[in-house]
Amino acid sequence: MTATNLATATADAAAAPELGGQRPGGRLREAFRSRRLVAGTAIVGFFVLLAIAGPFFFPNANKIGGPQYAGPSARYWLGTTQTGQDVFAQLVVSARASMEIVVGVALLATVVSVVIGITGAYVGGFVDEAFSLFSNFFLVIPTLPLIIVILAYVKSSGIASLIVIIALTSWAASARVLRSQTLSVRNREYVLAARASGERAWRIIVVEIVPNELPIIVSQFIFGGIFAILTQTALQFIGLGNPTLLTWGNMLNIAYSDEALNAGAWWWIITPGLCIALLGMGLALINFSLDEILNPRLRVYSDRRSRARRSRAGRAPAGRAA
Amino acid sequence: MRFVARKLGFYLAAAWVALTINFFLPRLMPGNPVEVVIARMQQSGPTPPGEAAALSKLLGLGSGNVFQRYWQYLDSLSHLRLGLSVSHFPEPVSSEIASSILWTLLLVGVATIISFVLGIALGAVAGWKRGFRLDALVPATTLLTAMPYFWVGLILVYVFATNVVHVLPASNGYDTAAGLTVGFNGPFIASAVQHATLPALSIIVTAVGGWLLGMRNMMVSTLSEDYVVAAEAKGLRPSRIMIGYAARNAVLPSISGFAISLGFVVSGAIAMEYVFNYPGIGYMLVTAVSNDDYPLMQGIFLVITLAVLGANLIVDLFQGYIDPRTRIAR
Fold first, then answer.
1. DSSP symbols for B199-225
2. Burial of A44 by CB count in 10 Å (0-12 exposed, 13-18 middle, 19+ buried)?
3. Which residues of A touch B214 (CB under 8 A)?
4. Quick one: which H or E segment has residue A143?
5. Alpha carbon B272 to chain centroid distance?
6. pLDDT band, residue A49 (cuts 50/70/90)
7. Cα distances (angstroms) measured from residue A289 to each of A14, A213, B224, B293
8. Which tens digits make up the pLDDT trace of B109-140?
9. Which of B102, B137, B190, B293 could form a disulfide with B288 if both were Cys (CB 3.0 to 4.6 A apart)?
10. How far away is chain A from the Cα of B193, in angstroms, using its nearest Cα?
11. CB-based contact B261:A2 (threshold 8 Å)
């Protein structure tokens, strides 16, 4: 639910901008002046490192036998679970499977949305009609109940099936954004020139259109990640994940069903959710600054020239100009 | 008129696709769902004769080839035969769903409206004062939006119900022990509102940020429009420019987002209802899944999907009425 809100909030913004014009290198250098982008990249990078390296530090995070429900201490940094497992170790190890699902879903959903959104809009005609009908259908269908019912029947909750099921229900919004962008790009001169020189359709899409829409595709990829982290947590929390797999959602599920709330074990409840929220925030911050790069009107100017322009327009608050 | 027909056609097609997906779902299952269900039903009492045949039609596993089975499935649905619930045997699925859907509609509906109004108001102010103090709110709201809503629910329970202070109830839709009659009477409504506070709060806390950011972005874009500059040049009061000129136009995209999210109110906040054992349709879906109650599960999926499609149709038609530009654009 929150994922859709966030998606609708910035999807419009991402669809609006004109692309091209600036050199990509200059754009990137300018982008990293944004503190939001730096903070977002740092957070996401931290979790990626944790996912890669973390499990090596705690080879047996599921080991039971410590004190039950011990609070945070020097021995157990984030306390223990009902069966005396080290919450900190579990948290670190969970990063891997959780991130695997995030990356897997984002990749798969992006590929599907690129194929459906860009191909349909480029080819046009019946294919476009069919593809956009298809994505509109997936936009109006309530996805979480669909995923839940599919998982209940498939009865397999390995990482791969979870990735496929979440991704196949989450590509539609991105496909629509990419479609509208492609509709405006497909009649630009460079595309027409490529077509006139006899390039084949798939080559025009891959070489001319996709690189030009790359910032939007990256932003949709990140949306896929945000959707994936929230959806997988919800599914695992209601017990549809594989309980033997250590993920943040499964930790929450076990904590909830083992009555961690009544036992007052706040460290077991708060920490997994905090990891999820931080990762989601990091991704959202990256996307937010991507939007500002794509849509200059959203930027908060800080250099003198634009401040002068703003105060000439009479909108700059009085205290700020000083 | 063409617009209406087009929308109607799309939603009819979508409903048909949803029915068809629902028909093919049981085939994904290894083994025979009918046997599983009948075996579970027999644990709770004797199954009525013919239940196995009715159930296999309903699950799209009747006799004959695929087309005959599909026909039998549609026939059962058209008579509103959704079968008997396994976990609440022998209650019919339809009455189970009817008893829970209003809880979800009221709770999630009210929470959605509150978060929209709050988010738009805050977003308008944040966009108006861009680069100023309030803009520091943006990273904070991003964090709020990235939090899983059910986890916020868990924390709220910890703080307000079980551990820190005991001011609000942690579970159920009303005080089941107090002998209240469910209906339109004072004590019941008071109890229901009290029980809905924490669930609603968990939705509002996580949903406000999305509206805020969207509104703030549109507000910032709108502020650079010529008519805003013209209004400033005329020397209108800033509050008038902010509300009457900028916010009024900036809110349009958010309204369509709001309309969409109203359509999805029926599908509820499933994990949140699970946290609070709230007697809504989402909690019922989770318990149906954990009890292998396939008839109930499919009935809920069908009802949620058709309700969401219906709500979206109404919203779409209504939107074409408010904003004629959307009638041309597809």
1. HHHHHHHHHHHHHHHHHHHHHHHHHTS
2. buried
3. 5, 8-10, 12
4. helix A143-154
5. 11
6. very high
7. 11, 16, 19, 46
8. 899 999 999 999 988 888 887 655 555 666 77
9. B293
10. 22
11. no
